[in-house]
Every structure is written in structure tokens, then in C-alpha cells.
Amino acid sequence: MERVPADSHGQEPPAPARRIRRPLNRGLAAVTGLLLLCVLPARAVGVTQPHDARPHTSLPLYVSDYGNDRVVTLPPDGGGPSTLPLDGLVRPTGLAFDRTGSLYVSDTGNNRVVRLLPDGGGQSTVPTDGLSRPLGLAVDPAGDLYIADSFNDRVVKVPADGTGQTTVPTTGLLHPWGLALEPDGDLYISDFVNDRVVKVPADGTGQTTVPTTGLSQPTGLALSATGDLYVSDSGNNRVVKLAAGTGAQTTVPATGLSSPLGLAVDRRGTLYVADAFNNRVLRVRPNGTQSTLNSTGLNTPTGLALPPDTRTTPPAAPAR
Question: What is the pLDDT of residues 162-188, one digit of tens each?
């Protein structure tokens, strides 16, 4: 597997392997490379994949194209990727929208998060302090931004009112990756090195570990409108679903995955998967039908996001 030189964009060398404070003895060198981020393997582009050009949602899917230092949209009509006007990105990863349609991007190689306003409103850098390899993002209904500050083993919150960055109270995180927010403010975090997902309740009652079976280096998270939690179980090359209410775990019927990362779910319950090392984005409909979106030119897709959909009110999520 060819690696991208750490200095190919002039950024600092990757953090040493000692940053991972317990051994990863699962033979997943490729995913360990993902954790180092600046040297994430860029898989060869150009492998022919079957594409699904049929429209399914009227909203475009946004994809962080890690190996090409850009964010693209995949249109609902099945056309090819279009590049967003973002300057200076180095190895982008997490994506999230706020209710106004502003897009937030973890510019991981530059240790920052950038914001792109809707309708050509321009790019700005989110005011943060001391980020080190930011990954997953989430935005609550009030516009407060949550950032998985992976190499600082923490999650930070940047309030929309400008009162300044705070650290979310968590315990024992080791390189947090994905984030997902319930409508009531409960926060889910994929704890990459600890092979778990944790929940931080909005009411301050304290962190708990979500009951799962067999996770290995979880990455992306996504919540459906009905409250089902999806987890990219990257070390096992699968995506699992934790059912709302019961928490029952099942494996999503997606075949051939190689290091799945970012996830997104549309209002109809269709799941999108950034299948990183296959350089493609998969679509899995509620009936289990799998197809590949037109992923031409993608190089290690990492983060996914759908813009806010205000056409209908989503159903309430059952309590987990």
C-alpha cells in the first residue's frame, strides 16, 4: 500500500506511534495509518465499480475526499462529484451541517475546523484552541459545534454564542473519532482505541458505555430519524446498527467493505457509507439493497454529511 509522504503538503510530521497508549494487536496496520492521519494511505484511484445513477433523495451527499484534499458533492441525479470552493484543506475528515445550511469541515492536517456558509457566503476558520487532529463533528439545534479532538483524547464544544471553547466531560477516551447527537442533546462518541461507543447525556448524569458486541476500532457514527444508531466498525470491515429502544445489535447488509469510515442517514432511512479503502461511497436502502454511488475520482473518502432537510418533520426518536 502506497503511503502519502507526510510532508507532501508541508505539514508537520505525523505524531509518533507512542501516542497510541496501548497496543493494537489486531493486525490492522491500514487502520493504524488512518489514526496517524497525515500519512493515511491513499489507495489507487480508477478501479471500476458498478454505479447507481438512479435518484433516491433530492439532497446532495457531501463527501470529504481525504486523499485529494477537498470536499465534494454527489448530486441526487447520479452525476459525478463536484468540488466545493474551500481553500487550503489538508486531509479533510469530519463533516457536519447546522440548521442554517452552513457546512463545517475538520481540516485535519491543519488542526482546525473551517465553516462554509451557504449560497456562496464564504469560508472562515472556527475559533478553537489547541486542536490536534480533529476528526468527527456534530452540531446541535442551537448551533453549538462539537469536535472530536482526537490526539488530545477529548471532545470540545464551541458554543454558537461565542462564549468560548469548553471540554465535554468524558472519561478515558483514547483518540475519539465519530460523533452523533440525539435531538435531546445526548452525545455519542466512538472511542477508537478502546473499541467502544460512549454516551454523554445532556443532563450531566455522566458518561456510560453503549452495550455492543465485538467492536474493533469504531469510527463513523450516524443516527436515523427514528433513533437507530449506526456505527462504522472499521476493524471488522462492517457497519452495525443498534436499534432504538432495545439497543439490539445487527450487522448492516453491506458487502465488500474495506475500512468503512463516515456514515450518513437520510430521512427515508437510507444509509450511506464512506468505504474508504475501496475509494467509493455505498448506499444501503432500508430493504437491504446495496449500490455504489458515482464515486469517480474519490481517493479515500472519509466523512459524509447530508444538508438539513426541512421538507418534513422527522419522526420522534424513541428513548434508547
Answer: 899 999 999 999 999 999 999 999 999
**The pTM is what?**
0.84
Using alpha carbons, list the distances in angstroms from residue 86 to 12, 42, 108, 180: 21, 20, 14, 24
| CB-based contact 249:271 (threshold 8 Å) | no
Burial of 218 by CB count in 10 Å (0-12 exposed, 13-18 middle, 19+ buried)? buried
Exposed, middle or buried, 8 (CB in 10 Å: 0-12/13-18/19+)? Answer: middle
Alpha-carbon 144 to chain mean position: 17
Is the Cβ–Cβ distance between 84 and 294 less than 8 Å? no
> What letter represents residue 160's amino acid?
A
DSSP 25: -
Torsions phi, psi for 284 (to 5 deg):
-120, 110
